[in-house]
């Protein structure tokens, strides 16, 4: 009787560790890429577009909105795997 109890307890422990690890990895994958930033460049003392692209990849931010089609920004973000949205303002 005691052996079966310990077997059950060990099995339950292994199952709970496996299940919680599985749930944690799914939760992280579901959250990754679910947020983003707006990258405005009208300011003083801002980092270069190359540096910004590196910082965003390090922070695992995947979605970026930019407000113009500046060549230096597009070149810095090309090939990085970041999803860009270019927002154009219509003058009417």
TrEMBL record:
<dbReference type="Pfam" id="PF00332">
    <property type="entry name" value="Glyco_hydro_17"/>
</dbReference>
<dbReference type="InterPro" id="IPR044965">
    <property type="entry name" value="Glyco_hydro_17_plant"/>
</dbReference>
<dbReference type="InterPro" id="IPR000490">
    <property type="entry name" value="Glyco_hydro_17"/>
</dbReference>
<dbReference type="GO" id="GO:0042973">
    <property type="term" value="F:glucan endo-1,3-beta-D-glucosidase activity"/>
</dbReference>
<dbReference type="InterPro" id="IPR017853">
    <property type="entry name" value="GH"/>
</dbReference>
<protein>
    <recommendedName>
        <fullName>glucan endo-1,3-beta-D-glucosidase</fullName>
        <ecNumber>3.2.1.39</ecNumber>
    </recommendedName>
</protein>
<dbReference type="GO" id="GO:0005975">
    <property type="term" value="P:carbohydrate metabolic process"/>
</dbReference>
<keyword id="KW-0378">Hydrolase</keyword>
<comment type="similarity">
    <text>Belongs to the glycosyl hydrolase 17 family.</text>
</comment>
<keyword id="KW-0326">Glycosidase</keyword>
């Amino acid at each position: 009787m005691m052996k079966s109890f310990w077997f059950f307890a060990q099995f339950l422990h292994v199952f709970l560790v496996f299940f919680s690890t599985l749930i944690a990895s799914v939760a992280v994958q579901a959250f990754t890429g679910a947020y983003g930033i707006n990258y405005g460049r009208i300011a003083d003392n801002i980092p270069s577009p190359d540096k910004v692209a590196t910082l965003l990849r390090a922070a695992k931010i995947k979605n970026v909105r930019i407000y113009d089609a500046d060549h230096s920004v597009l070149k810095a973000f090309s090939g990085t795997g970041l999803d860009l949205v270019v927002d154009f303002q219509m003058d009417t």
